[in-house]
Each structure stands twice: as structure tokens, then as C-alpha cells.
Amino acid sequence: MTQNSNDIRDMFFQECEDLLETLSEGLRQLDQQSEDVDTLHAVFRAVHSIKGGAGAFGIDSLVSFAHRFETLLDEVRTGRLACDTDVMRLFHRAGDHLSDLVAAARAGHHPQGASDDYAMGLQADLEALIAATGDDEGTEDAETEAAVGFEPVALDLSPAVPGGRGTTRYRIRFAPDAGLYSSGNDPALLFRSLGRLGTLSTTADIDAVPALEGLDWQESLIRWTLTLETEADESTVREVFDFAEGNCTLEIEREEAAKEAEAPEAAVPSLDSVLDHRAARSEEGAPEADDGEGGAAVRLDGIGGATGAEAASAGGPKASATAGSASATIRVNLDRVDRLVNLVGELVIKEAMLSQSISDAGLPAESDVSSGHEGLKQLVGELQEGIMAIRAQPVKSLFQRMFRIVRETADTTGKQVRLVTRGAHAEVDKTVIERLADPLTHMIRNAIDHGLESPEARDAAGKPAEGTLILSAYHRSGRVMIDISDDGKGIDRARVRAVAERKGLVAPDSDLSSAEIDNLLFAPGFSSKEEVSNLSGRGIGLDVVKNEIQALGGRVSITSQEGEGTTFSMSLPLTLAVLEGMVTEVAGQTMVIPITAVQETLQPGTACLHAVGRAGRFVESRGEFIPIIDLGLAFGYRPALADLDDHVLLIVETEAYKRRALIVDHIHEQRQVVIKSLEENYGRVAGVAAATIMGDGRIALIIDPEEVAGTGAGRRSPDAEISLTAAE
């Protein structure tokens, strides 16, 4: 297979991701409203499209299973099978397995987690239900399709030839609306289906298509006239256009079989010829994408494996432009975006260096250089914001994966669970989404395994037999919050404490608050389960979950009400590339405090300070006594300060420790800084989240207020000084 063929194959699997998302979302909608015909059609189209594309690339196992799946879906569409709870459960299992088969085909190996016995059992269940409806053709057709090897994707629209006995010639006038394209349909695929019924010729009427400069990409202006000679009856011909119903004008007329078709032949190239043409144009330096002058970008529209080139050939050069207008997005390799992010990060650093040079030179603010720099700074900020937006993705894709986790865990534990998602369109950096999948999976399994009661226990407690999990996302103070809530029994704090004392995690006579007891679940080695299970119990491995979330610059906290349920809350940064921070100076070292944590600044001379014991100090603010932490002392830069008059207090808020006042010497400015991993380039430092490069070339530490608040003041000695410069 050539490189271009590999590119087309990759495009097919990318389209499969969207189709599987449509399938999953549609099945969940059918759970709520099984009579929704439009949703059922969308689910059927998704499975059918995956099967068609898989057939084009010779993925027989995927074709065979998808065919059984779509046959059963068709039984529901035609009303021969009721869409009850058992059928929906089978549909969900089939959807999960179809996803496994797509992933396996993409990676070139056997589906992970799906044994041969399970796959055979699932197919047997599908076939048994198909047989029960009296439709045996599905199985036979699947076996026939599975035996077909790889063939290039091509439309066979050859000129009509005299047919055999019993043939009928149909004249078809087809005028699609704009809605046909936006719903994912493609006329080229309809024509291919017609071609399978007999011999077909087609022509496109493009008289209504204006010149390129006057073209409205949202309109559908091309009309087709087709001549089909077939032994099929008219109802079969009309079934081809079922998916286009409501989105087109369709006229079908019978003609005498001996009458010659008046429409000229419209030849359609095969996939190989399209790829060869593409390669030749690339060598000549011509663009591969549609340039408005007849060049067509080869892409998969996600239906039956048809390409944009087929649509272009079916309707002439300008047809490709209209058909392609349904897609408002492009796919870009993530590595390219990452390189662009890094380049913009370096641009931000260079801009900071330029700013430092202007300041050192003492140039006035009204000078041409300073004015030009301000304009450059604004453009760099907008560019950085735009690049970050490219990496931002809704958490919907992550949330959708959790439905399968819930189904599988519920089946394993024998519990009835309903997952509700909220705020799935909240956006966060793609890297955060990818690294959050494992911790979120673990926490959901915990919630079902230990948080929710059995149906019998819930019934005894006066609760519905079906437990509810709520997975929600929302933005707050420049961060994304993800909550996992269950309506289970809550945390048994007496038992948690007893387990912690038995394992030596806390002293028997220690005075612990409810929040501190809850946080024992995150202690390394804590486990409230005595038996070994395939599922992680509440507490099993939660220390690993906490570490993974902290590695993302996030925090996790717990709130629980006995008998009512538990909520795990995760606070995560929107991006791992840049940070809006307060640039401060502490004992000659530059430190950056995340602006999302800063609430206010205070001058100690005018603040109400209180001493507690020998070393403890508090500041009174709005009726609250806030502990003071000296960053210079905490990081070993200097001994404890006796006088705070010449310093500044930054009031920060943390998830676990609430408000703290950080002592700094000076506040320089608020600016965006590029995050550099300190752990990868230097080592792990407690209280430090990352580092950045300032305009003078020095390395500044980005402080982790949460960890600093937990560590507190006086925990470090001056011997533990941390001093990083660009030279080091």
C-alpha cells in the first residue's frame, strides 16, 4: 500500500472516531426514547458507514460484525423488533465491541479485553435475535461480504447496456438540499448503491452554480439526472434514498427498457487513479486541496468509505466545492500543533527578554521602540491565546468513554447504575484530557464498587434500586473543575479511621477532623477492603490517582455525607503550556505565583497581625485569621523574618487548606509565563509546580500554593536553599 493509501486509511479511522461517538450518543438517547426514529437512523448510518469503509480496506472481521449489528438495527427500524431494555443492552455491548474492533484494526492486533469466546458469544446473541425476527439474509450476506478481499474504492457508473428479461429503466431526478450534506450524507454514496441494483448513468446540472467569487458555500446548487436499468421494483429503488428523505427533491419515473438513456456518461475514477493524480500534482508543486478550479481534496466523509474525489466526479469540478462545504474543520497532526505551541512559547520568552532590555536601557514609555514593543506584546498574546485554543477540546469525548466503564463495572458488581453527565462542552487542553482518563476511570470504578449500595441495600434504605453517578465539568477561576458524585452510603469515617490506625497511618489518640479522615483515603497503602478484587475499592490506589492529578498541576478533594453520598472534586489547569502568574521577588530569587490562586494583597504595616506561640503568625482579614507562610523561610533562602513592614502579603486560596498569606519581598508584575517542567529537567522540588525562563534569562520557580500551604513555614533549613539560574 502506498503512502497516499496509508493516508486515506488513517483518514478512515479518524472518521470512525466521529462515527463511534455518534453511535454511542445515539444509543444513550435511545435508552431514554426508544421511539426516536431520527436517532435510530443516525445510529444505523454510523454502523453502516463503518462497515462500508472497513470493506474498502479489506477489514473482514469488522465488516462481518458490523453487518450483523446493522441488520439487527434495521429490524428495529422496520418495526419487526421492539427496542426494549434487553435489546438496548445488547446494542450497547455490540457498540463497545465494534469500538474494540476499530481500535484493533487501527493498531493491527487482536482487540484488547475482548476474548474470542466473548466475541463469539456476542455474535451468537446477535444472530439468534436476527433469526428470531425471521431475517436469515443478514447472516448470509455477512459471510459473503467477509469473503471479499480488498478492492479500491470506486463508483461504477458505466454507461447503460441492454439488460436482460424483466428489466425496467427508471429516470431519476435528484435535487439535494443543504441539509443533506450537513447530516453526513453524500450523493456519491447514493449513486453507488443505485449502481449495485443494475446499470447506471448519471449527469449533473451545474447551470445554477455561479462563478467562484459569487458562490455561497452553504447552498446546494447541483442537481442530478440519473438513468437506472434494473430488475428491482420501484420501492427498492426508493429505499436507496431513505436517508435523504426530507433533505431532497426526488422524482422517479419508469421508462421503456429499449429507450436509450439521454444523459451522457459521467465517468468516475478509481481510488488508485485519484491517488496517482494526487502524487503527480504534489511532484509538480500543485496544491492537493480544492483550489476552486477543479482540484479536489481526497477525504473520507465517513459514509461507506467514499472519497471527496468521487463526489467531485459525480457532479463536475464545482461539485466538489459544494460537497466539501459541509465540513467546517480540518484535521492536523497533534505533533505539528505541539511544535507550534513550543515555538510560540519561545516567542513569548523572547518578547520578555526584549521588554527587559527596553527597561534596562531606560527608554521612555512614549518612545517609538516602547510603543512598537507594546504592539508586539499584544500580538504575541493574541497568537498565544489562539494556539492554546487549538489544543483545547471539550471533555465530552472523555465523558463518553466513562459510559462503558460504568456499564462494565455495574455488570461486574451486580448493581444498577445510571450515569448522568453535565457540562461536557467545557474545554481543556488535550494533554490534560488524555492524562485524566485513567484517574477518572479508577475513581468511577471506586464510586460504583464501594460508594453505591447493592439494590437490596438501597431498597432497605428507601432509595431507588438504581444508583446515580453524576459526572460534571465547569470552569471556575481560570481552571476546570470535574466532579464525580454518587448517591450512595457515603464514607464510613469510623471504619476509615479504624483501618488507618490498624495500618499505622495515624496515632490512636490523634484529633482528626472529618476532612482529615476523608483524606486518609489518599494515604499510600490505605485500603478498606480485605479481599482482592478486579476492581479498585474506595481507597485502593487512590494515592496513585492523587499523584497523577497533582502531576497535571491539579488537586483532588472529597466531600461526603453519610447515607447520602460522596463527591470527588478535581481542580485542573486549562493548559499545561502557559500560566498567568504574579511575578514576585523573595530573598533575591524570582518566584511566580499562579494568579488563579491569588485573592488579594496586603501591606503588613496596615494589616492586623497576631503572634501565636513562638513561631506562628496570623493576619486578620475580613474577620478571618489567616496563617502566614514566609516563602523565604519555607524554601531555605533565609531565617525567619522579625519585621514584616517592608514586605508584602499575598492572600492565596487552596483546595485543602483554604486561605494562606504568603510573604514576598516585592511584586514586579502580572504576566503570562511559559511552563517548563522542573521535574524532567532538574528534579522534584516540594512546593514547586514548574519553572519558567524570565526576560533576563534567569530561571524562576512557579510556586505550588497548595503544597506550600501543606508544608507550611519553618519546615526547611537554610541548608536546603534552591537557587537556579540560566548558567546553572
Largest sheet: 6 strands, mixed
Radius of gyration: 32 Å
Terminal-residue CA separation: 50 Å
The percent of residues in helical segments reads 40-55%
Keywords:
single chain, alpha+beta, Four Helix Bundle (Hemerythrin (Met), subunit A), 5 domains, five-stranded mixed beta sheet, 21% strand, flat
Structure description:
The chain has 728 residues and is of the alpha+beta class. It contains 23 helices and 22 strands. The longest helix has 30 residues, at 3-32. The chain is flat, with a radius of gyration of 32 Å. The protein starts with a helix and ends in a 17-residue tail after the last helix.
Secondary-structure map with pairings?
Elements: H1 3-32, H2 37-56, H3 60-77, H4 85-107, H5 116-132, H6 137-146, E1 168-176, H7 178-182, H8 187-197, E2 198-205, E3 223-230, H9 234-239, E4 248-255, H10 271-283, H11 308-315, H12 317-324, H13 334-361, H14 368-391, E5 392-394, H15 396-413, E6 416-422, E7 427-429, H16 430-451, H17 455-460, E8 466-476, E9 479-486, H18 493-502, H19 514-519, H20 542-551, E10 555-561, E11 565-573, E12 578-586, E13 589-594, E14 598-602, E15 608-612, E16 616-621, E17 624-630, H21 631-634, E18 648-654, E19 658-664, E20 666-674, H22 678-681, E21 688-693, E22 699-703, H23 705-711
Parallel strand pairs: 6-8, 13-22, 17-19
Antiparallel strand pairs: 1-3, 1-4, 2-3, 5-7, 8-9, 9-11, 10-11, 12-13, 12-20, 14-18, 15-16, 16-17, 18-19, 21-22
